Amino acid sequence: MKNIKILLIIIFAVFLALGAYVLKSKFDGQKKIVEKLTPFTVILDWTPNTNHTGMYVALAKGWYKDEGLDVKILPYASGTAPDVLVTSGKADVGVSSAEGVVSSAAAGNPVVSIAAIVQHNTSGFMALSDSGIKTAKDLDNKIYGGYGSPIEKAILHKIITTDGGKGEYKNVNLDVAAMQALTNKQIDFFWVFEGWEVIQAKKQGLNVVYFPSINYGIADYYTPVLMTSPSAIKQKPEVLRKFMTATRKGYQYAIEHPKESADLLIATAPKGTFPDTGFIEESQRFLSARYVDKGRQWGLQDKKAWQEYPQFIIDAGGALDKNGKPIKKLNFDSLYTNEFIN
């Protein structure tokens, strides 16, 4: 009996030791996984919004970690373009616009668009209905709240003249929020995104008129886009590919689940970012239906979009070199790649 007790004690001790070893091995394995996560930073082009939902979904679902990435979404840095932070190595990927990509290339500090977040241009110009503005030609001689860039002038001139106007208006560079300036009658109209400011205005009970740019002869283009630097593409293509794998999954989820993805955006963005959750849900429904055309893969970019609109910018004198002089030519193929989408 005594020998049996001793044997049982030995067996019990062996099991304890084995259990401790297994737990330690499991813990060490998890620790190694955490240690192997590659830091990766994304810089936004504005405060978090429904253009960014796919990335916040991927973050919340752990899909970046599944790809071995520790992704940090950096807040918008006022006064510093995301393109500059990417080319200077302070961020791996940034959210930008076609105008930003063209401007960076023209100035000799190029970035490359690696995905179209939204398939078509959903921006245009919005005015209050009681301003007397009914059609685009009514924008003539009205006050525009803008930023004073050559491309704004070219787009507005095209829109107004296409509708039969002269293309003449007064430009005011804003020092307050555009929506506030509009409701205070400081301006008559400004450049908006249909899935954001137009919805916002209607939720505030404002009666507005909206003129989509693509309805007036402006070449369609992708806005916004995800971009990175040429050096990042050369030095860490596999890391970028992993980032895009998870990001594509996030946007696909948002396409299929607008309400759930809006909830994830609200929950994952910094606390207090979205005081009106109903507005975010409505904006998400709008964009989820527009991230990609039916039957097409999210993020894909076409040559046509990266030729016609950039050429329009150049023709308008809106692409300036490092000395501030308009350029005449640009290698359009260098502005984008589908390498990380396929």
CATH architecture of the largest domain: 3-Layer(aba) Sandwich
Helix share, percent: 40-55%
The first-level CATH class name of the largest domain: Alpha Beta
Average pLDDT rating: 91
CATH superfamily heading of the largest domain: Periplasmic binding protein-like II
What's the β-strand tally?
Answer: 10
**CA radius of gyration:** 25 Å
How much of the sequence is in beta strands? 5-15%
- Characterize the main sheet: 5 strands, mixed
Secondary-structure element series = HEHHEHEHEEEHEHEHEEHHHHH
Described by its quaternary structure, the protein is single chain
N→C terminal distance: 70 Å
Structural class: alpha/beta
Provide structural commentary.
The longest helix is centred in the N-terminal third of the chain and has 35 residues, at 2-36. It is built from 13 helices and ten strands. The protein has helices at residues 2-36, 53-61, 63-66, 82-87, 98-106, 150-162, 178-183, 194-203, 230-235, 237-256, 258-268, 277-288, 305-315; strands at 38-43, 69-74, 93-96, 112-116, 123-128, 143-146, 170-173, 189-193, 208-212, 225-228. The chain is an alpha/beta fold and 342 residues long. The chain is globular and about 60 Å long. Mean pLDDT is 91; it is low at 6-11, 13-18 and 20-25. Strand 6 (143-146), helix 6 and strand 7 (170-173) form a beta-alpha-beta unit. The protein has a five-stranded mixed sheet. It folds into three domains: 1-36; 38-117 and 222-335, D-Maltodextrin-Binding Protein, domain 2; 123-216, Periplasmic binding protein-like II (D-Maltodextrin-Binding Protein, domain 2, 3-Layer(aba) Sandwich), CATH 3.40.190.
